[in-house]
Amino acid sequence: MALPGRPFWVIVHRWAGLTLALFLAVAGLTGSLLPWFEELDAATAPAMQNAAPPRPGMAALDPLAVRAGLLARHPAARVDFVYLTRLPGRADRLYATWPDPRTGLERRDRPDWDDVFLNPWTGAEQGHRRNGDVRQGIKNLMPFLYRLHYSLALGPWGLFTMGVAALVWTVDCFVGFYLTLPPGALGKGGLWRRWRPSWKVRRPTSSYKLTFDLHRAGGLWLWPILLVFALSSVSFNLPQVYRPVLGLLGGQDDEALLEASALPSPRWNPALDFPAAARHGAALAQQETARRGLSLRPDGRAWLWYIPATGLYVYGVKSSADITQEGGGTRIAFDGNSGELRHVSVPTGAQGATTFTTWVVALHMAHVGGLAWRIAVSVIGLGITVLSVTGVLIWLRKRSARAGRRFKAAARPAPA
C-alpha cells in the first residue's frame, strides 16, 4: 500500500496544529515558569513558606514529629505523605486530606485548606491554602499555573484533553519533520544542500516569510526536545495509552503495580505507624540497593507515602540509579501491617524502557542539568508558544490568499 502523498500530510499538519495551538500556547507559557516553581512559589508568600529557628542553635524537630503535632491539632485530617529530609530555610509542607472513613469521600465539614506550612523548629502552623484555588490570592498563583499547565485547571476532563493533545502532538512531531524535507528528498542525492535552507531564518523581506521561517526553523532546531516533551506529556496525562506501550517494550509501570494491589476496602490504620514504617523502609532500602549493586546517596530527599487503598507504604530515597538532584526515584513498597517487601523500583539501569521514561520525565520537569537546563526549558516553553502562534498566522495568511483567489475568480467576467 502506498503512503499518502505530501499534500495529505500538509493537511494533517495544518489541522493538528490548529487543534493544538491553544493547548500548546498555554502549556508553553506556563511551562516557561515552572522550572522556577519553588522559588516563585516561595516569593508569593515568604512568611508562609520560609522558616528560621526562633533562636540560634535550636535543634529542628523530626519531620514525623511535626506531622504528629499537626494531626493532634486536626484529628479529622490525614497526612499520608511526608518528606523525611528538608530544604534549607523552608517550612515543612504537608498535604492534608479529610476523608470520611466510612465512605472514603471528602468530608463536607472540612476546612478551606489542604496545604499547610509548619515551622520545623516549633511545629507551629505558618500558613494554609487550598492548593490551586487562585481565589485565595497570590499565594496560590504557582499551584494554579501548574494545574493550568497540565489540565487547563479543569480537573479530570482537562487532564484527559491535554493527554489527547499530547498524543496528537507526538504524531505531529513526525509529520512536521517530514514536511521540512525538500520534496522528493528520499529519492534524490544532495539532501543536505537542499534541506539546509529549512534550518535558517532568512533575512526578512516580508512579515510572512519571517513568520514562516520562524515556524519551520524553530521546529527543526527544537525537534528532539519537542518530541521528548510530547512523549512525557502522554506518560503524565494518558497512562492508559502509555502504560501498555511501556509494557510491550519491557518497561515497568509502578503505578499499575500499585493499582493491582488494591484492597477490597481501604486500610486506614495499618499496624506500622509512620515512625516504624520510616525505620523499616530505610532498612529495606539499604538491603535492596546493596543487593542490586547500588549505593544510597545522602544528598537527596527521602520521603514516605502510605496508600490506604492498597495498605502499602512506599519509601523513596536517592540511590546511585537516580539521575535527578533531589532523587527519591528509588522506591521500596512494603505491606503496612506485616512490613513484607512487595516491590522495588529503580529509575535507571534495570529496564531500557523505564530508563527512557525516567529521562524524558526528568528533562520535561527540568530535574536534571542544573541551572543551565532550567533556563533552557524556560526558553523552550516560550519557543513552543512561538511555534503555535506562527502556525496559526501562516494558516490565516494562506486562508486569506485562497479566499482572495476565489473572489477574483468569481468576479472575472465569463467568456463570451
From TrEMBL:
Pfam families per UniProt:
PepSY_TM (PF03929)
Provide the protein name.
Answer: Iron-regulated membrane protein
Organism classification, top ranks? Answer: Bacteria, Pseudomonadati, Pseudomonadota, Alphaproteobacteria, Sphingomonadales
Keyword terms of this UniProt record: Membrane, Transmembrane, Transmembrane helix
Which residue ranges traverse the bilayer? Answer: 15-37, 148-169, 175-193, 214-236, 371-396
Q: Does the keyword Membrane apply?
A: yes
